[in-house]
Write a structure and sequence with these properties.
- Helix content is 22%, strand content 28%.
- The chain has one domain: UDP N-Acetylglucosamine Acyltransferase, domain 1 (3 Solenoid).
- A hairpin with a 4-residue loop joins strand 19 and strand 20.
- 30% of the residues are buried.
- By secondary structure, the chain is α/β, with parallel strands linked by helices.
- Helix 2 runs antiparallel to helix 3.
- The protein has a seven-stranded mixed β-sheet with strand order 3-6-9-14-17-19-20, with no helix packed on it. It has a five-stranded parallel β-sheet with strand order 2-5-8-13-16, with no helix packed on it. It has a five-stranded parallel β-sheet with strand order 4-7-10-15-18.
- The termini are far apart.
Length: 194
Protein backbone atom coordinates (compact mmCIF):
# COMPACT_ATOMS: atom_id res chain seq x y z
CA UNK A 1 0.00 0.00 0.00
CA UNK A 2 1.00 3.61 -0.39
CA UNK A 3 2.66 5.82 2.18
CA UNK A 4 -0.42 7.85 3.24
CA UNK A 5 -2.60 4.74 3.50
CA UNK A 6 0.02 3.03 5.67
CA UNK A 7 0.50 6.15 7.81
CA UNK A 8 -3.26 6.38 8.43
CA UNK A 9 -3.47 2.74 9.53
CA UNK A 10 -0.51 3.23 11.89
CA UNK A 11 -2.18 6.27 13.50
CA UNK A 12 0.40 8.71 12.18
CA UNK A 13 0.01 12.09 10.54
CA UNK A 14 -1.27 11.62 7.00
CA UNK A 15 -3.09 13.45 4.24
CA UNK A 16 -6.45 11.78 3.65
CA UNK A 17 -6.66 13.06 0.07
CA UNK A 18 -4.99 9.91 -1.24
CA UNK A 19 -6.16 7.54 -4.00
CA UNK A 20 -5.92 4.38 -1.86
CA UNK A 21 -7.70 5.97 1.09
CA UNK A 22 -10.34 7.33 -1.29
CA UNK A 23 -10.83 3.86 -2.84
CA UNK A 24 -11.39 2.25 0.58
CA UNK A 25 -13.79 5.03 1.55
CA UNK A 26 -15.73 4.61 -1.73
CA UNK A 27 -16.06 0.84 -1.26
CA UNK A 28 -17.35 1.27 2.30
CA UNK A 29 -19.80 3.99 1.23
CA UNK A 30 -21.22 1.72 -1.49
CA UNK A 31 -21.80 -1.01 1.12
CA UNK A 32 -23.36 1.50 3.52
CA UNK A 33 -25.70 2.76 0.80
CA UNK A 34 -27.04 -0.75 0.38
CA UNK A 35 -27.11 -1.36 4.15
CA UNK A 36 -29.03 1.82 4.91
CA UNK A 37 -31.46 1.25 2.03
CA UNK A 38 -32.57 -2.23 3.00
CA UNK A 39 -36.08 -2.90 4.26
CA UNK A 40 -36.27 -3.35 8.02
CA UNK A 41 -37.56 -6.85 7.26
CA UNK A 42 -34.29 -7.89 5.61
CA UNK A 43 -32.30 -8.64 8.78
CA UNK A 44 -30.27 -11.47 7.24
CA UNK A 45 -28.87 -9.34 4.39
CA UNK A 46 -28.22 -6.42 6.76
CA UNK A 47 -26.30 -8.76 9.11
CA UNK A 48 -24.32 -10.18 6.17
CA UNK A 49 -23.39 -6.68 4.96
CA UNK A 50 -22.41 -5.55 8.43
CA UNK A 51 -20.05 -8.51 8.76
CA UNK A 52 -18.48 -7.69 5.36
CA UNK A 53 -18.21 -4.04 6.22
CA UNK A 54 -16.82 -3.96 9.77
CA UNK A 55 -13.66 -5.35 11.35
CA UNK A 56 -15.61 -7.59 13.73
CA UNK A 57 -19.30 -8.14 14.56
CA UNK A 58 -20.33 -10.31 17.51
CA UNK A 59 -23.42 -12.45 17.88
CA UNK A 60 -26.74 -10.69 18.34
CA UNK A 61 -25.45 -7.26 17.28
CA UNK A 62 -28.06 -4.79 16.01
CA UNK A 63 -27.07 -1.62 14.14
CA UNK A 64 -30.08 0.41 13.08
CA UNK A 65 -29.91 2.49 9.92
CA UNK A 66 -28.96 5.14 9.12
CA UNK A 67 -25.44 4.15 10.07
CA UNK A 68 -22.25 5.89 8.95
CA UNK A 69 -18.59 4.95 9.17
CA UNK A 70 -15.67 5.79 6.91
CA UNK A 71 -13.41 2.74 6.56
CA UNK A 72 -14.97 -0.20 8.42
CA UNK A 73 -12.40 -0.16 11.23
CA UNK A 74 -15.09 -0.89 13.84
CA UNK A 75 -15.46 -3.96 16.08
CA UNK A 76 -18.73 -4.51 17.96
CA UNK A 77 -19.04 -7.13 20.72
CA UNK A 78 -21.81 -9.68 21.29
CA UNK A 79 -25.27 -8.35 22.07
CA UNK A 80 -24.52 -4.68 21.48
CA UNK A 81 -27.15 -2.31 20.10
CA UNK A 82 -26.40 0.78 18.00
CA UNK A 83 -29.45 2.96 17.42
CA UNK A 84 -30.25 5.13 14.40
CA UNK A 85 -27.98 7.83 13.00
CA UNK A 86 -24.74 6.64 14.61
CA UNK A 87 -21.62 8.31 13.18
CA UNK A 88 -18.29 6.53 13.54
CA UNK A 89 -15.30 8.34 12.06
CA UNK A 90 -12.95 5.38 12.10
CA UNK A 91 -9.61 6.59 10.75
CA UNK A 92 -8.33 4.73 13.82
CA UNK A 93 -9.94 1.61 15.23
CA UNK A 94 -13.16 1.80 17.22
CA UNK A 95 -13.80 -1.07 19.62
CA UNK A 96 -17.23 -1.45 21.22
CA UNK A 97 -17.53 -4.11 23.94
CA UNK A 98 -20.30 -6.62 24.55
CA UNK A 99 -23.85 -5.59 25.55
CA UNK A 100 -23.24 -1.90 24.91
CA UNK A 101 -26.13 0.45 24.21
CA UNK A 102 -25.61 3.44 21.89
CA UNK A 103 -28.64 5.72 21.71
CA UNK A 104 -29.65 7.64 18.57
CA UNK A 105 -27.16 10.08 17.04
CA UNK A 106 -24.16 8.95 19.06
CA UNK A 107 -20.84 10.00 17.51
CA UNK A 108 -17.53 8.15 17.96
CA UNK A 109 -14.91 10.43 16.40
CA UNK A 110 -11.34 9.15 16.08
CA UNK A 111 -10.29 11.79 13.54
CA UNK A 112 -8.40 14.86 14.71
CA UNK A 113 -6.15 17.57 13.33
CA UNK A 114 -3.01 19.35 14.45
CA UNK A 115 -3.50 22.72 16.13
CA UNK A 116 -0.60 24.24 14.16
CA UNK A 117 -2.38 26.10 11.33
CA UNK A 118 0.29 25.56 8.65
CA UNK A 119 0.20 21.73 8.44
CA UNK A 120 -3.54 21.76 9.16
CA UNK A 121 -4.09 24.02 6.13
CA UNK A 122 -2.01 21.59 4.05
CA UNK A 123 -4.42 18.76 5.04
CA UNK A 124 -2.39 16.82 7.62
CA UNK A 125 -4.52 14.89 10.09
CA UNK A 126 -4.38 11.81 12.29
CA UNK A 127 -6.68 9.63 14.35
CA UNK A 128 -6.66 8.08 17.82
CA UNK A 129 -8.56 4.87 18.69
CA UNK A 130 -11.72 4.79 20.80
CA UNK A 131 -12.56 1.89 23.12
CA UNK A 132 -15.84 1.23 24.93
CA UNK A 133 -15.71 -1.50 27.58
CA UNK A 134 -18.51 -4.01 28.10
CA UNK A 135 -22.00 -2.86 29.07
CA UNK A 136 -21.41 0.83 28.32
CA UNK A 137 -24.49 2.97 27.71
CA UNK A 138 -24.11 6.19 25.70
CA UNK A 139 -27.15 8.49 25.84
CA UNK A 140 -28.67 10.19 22.82
CA UNK A 141 -26.36 12.54 20.97
CA UNK A 142 -23.32 11.73 23.12
CA UNK A 143 -19.98 12.45 21.44
CA UNK A 144 -16.82 10.49 22.21
CA UNK A 145 -13.62 12.27 21.13
CA UNK A 146 -10.37 10.82 19.74
CA UNK A 147 -8.29 8.59 21.99
CA UNK A 148 -10.96 8.06 24.68
CA UNK A 149 -11.49 4.81 26.58
CA UNK A 150 -14.69 4.27 28.59
CA UNK A 151 -14.65 1.58 31.28
CA UNK A 152 -17.08 -1.31 31.73
CA UNK A 153 -20.62 -0.58 32.98
CA UNK A 154 -20.27 3.21 32.62
CA UNK A 155 -23.26 5.36 31.63
CA UNK A 156 -22.77 8.60 29.67
CA UNK A 157 -25.64 11.09 29.71
CA UNK A 158 -27.42 12.39 26.64
CA UNK A 159 -25.60 15.21 24.87
CA UNK A 160 -22.36 14.68 26.79
CA UNK A 161 -19.00 15.30 25.10
CA UNK A 162 -16.42 12.80 26.36
CA UNK A 163 -12.96 14.34 25.93
CA UNK A 164 -11.06 12.18 28.45
CA UNK A 165 -11.07 8.56 29.61
CA UNK A 166 -13.85 7.52 31.98
CA UNK A 167 -13.39 4.76 34.60
CA UNK A 168 -15.59 1.71 34.96
CA UNK A 169 -18.87 1.83 36.87
CA UNK A 170 -19.68 5.55 36.83
CA UNK A 171 -22.30 7.93 35.51
CA UNK A 172 -20.82 10.84 33.54
CA UNK A 173 -22.55 13.84 31.97
CA UNK A 174 -21.96 17.34 30.69
CA UNK A 175 -19.77 19.27 28.28
CA UNK A 176 -17.08 18.27 28.76
CA UNK A 177 -18.27 15.05 30.41
CA UNK A 178 -17.37 14.67 34.07
CA UNK A 179 -18.00 11.84 36.49
CA UNK A 180 -21.21 12.64 38.38
CA UNK A 181 -21.17 9.59 40.66
CA UNK A 182 -20.32 5.94 40.98
CA UNK A 183 -22.93 3.34 40.14
CA UNK A 184 -23.92 1.62 43.40
CA UNK A 185 -26.55 -0.17 45.44
CA UNK A 186 -29.08 2.65 45.02
CA UNK A 187 -29.10 1.89 41.27
CA UNK A 188 -30.09 -1.76 41.71
CA UNK A 189 -33.48 -2.64 40.24
CA UNK A 190 -35.42 -5.80 40.86
CA UNK A 191 -36.24 -7.27 37.47
CA UNK A 192 -39.65 -8.94 37.16
CA UNK A 193 -39.80 -12.60 36.25
CA UNK A 194 -41.35 -13.16 32.87
Amino acid sequence: MGEMFDRMFRGELHIADDPEIDALYARVQDQLEEYNGLSWRNDSRRDELLRELLREVGDGVVVRPRFFCEYGRVAIGDGSFVNADAVMLDGAEITIGSTCWLAPRVQLLTATHVVDPVPRRAGWEYAKPITLGDNVWLGGGAIVCPGVTIGDDTVVGAGAVVTKDLPAGVVAAGVPARVVREIGESDRVEVPRV
